[in-house]
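Onboarding guide, step 5: your first structure request.
Type a short instruction followed by the sequence, for example:

Predict the 3D structure of this protein.
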Amino acid sequence: MISKDLLEIICCPLTKADLVLENDALVSTDEKTRLRYKIVDDIPVLLVEEAEEVPLEEWREIMKKHDRLK
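The system replies with structure tokens like these:
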């Protein structure tokens, strides 16, 4: 599990946007890129080339759940 302290200091390596913890992944709060980064053995894999783009509607639901919609 990712600690709250770690979550407060890490960010999307591409956009520097905040990340939110969603199940077994970290999701960027940047609406343009909407990248999801896997967490493997409790270690975030913050490699842009391994990230996946979250569909817009799914991203909005995630942001709404985490109170991050503007």
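Each response can be followed by summary notes, for example: The beta strands are 19-22, 25-28, 35-40, 43-44, 52-53.
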